[in-house]
Design goal:
By secondary structure, the protein is α/β, with parallel strands linked by helices. The protein has four helices and five strands, in the order E-H-E-H-E-H-E-E-H. It has one domain: Glutaredoxin (3-Layer(aba) Sandwich), CATH 3.40.30.10.
Length: about 110
């Protein structure tokens, strides 16, 4: 699943503990195995996880097919959708396969 050991799986079951109960910046990639653009953005997400790990960035991936409750809760209608959480609160959303500099700017905005 993860292209980096720093990227972990987020599920309906662990979302509260792993994302909403943490301090600092979390980035969650909402994706699906059949989604081509998701495969394009995955290496960027993994690279950002490695690059910003020492600054406290936590990166997870949530498969929307296997975790419909959380996807529905955040109104995910298009994937990839990358949601940013600061101290457990949803602060931003990026939809689509965007270039690395765009995502990196978002990370820097909130970190």
């Amino acid at each position: 699943m993860a292209e980096s050991e720093r990227v972990f799986e987020v599920t309906d079951q662990n979302f509260g503990d792993e994302i909403e109960s943490t301090t600092g910046l979390s980035m969650v990639d909402f994706w699906a195995a059949w989604c081509g653009p998701c495969r394009m953005v995955a290496p960027i997400v993994a690279d950002l996880a490695e690059t910003y790990a020492d600054q406290g960035l936590k990166v997870g991936k949530l498969d929307v097919d296997n975790n419909p409750h959380t996807a529905s809760r955040f109104g995910i209608r298009s994937i990839p959708s990358i949601l940013f959480f600061k101290d457990g609160k949803h602060v931003d959303t990026v939809i689509g396969a965007v270039p690395r500099p765009f995502l990196e700017a978002k990370v820097n905005e909130y970190i």
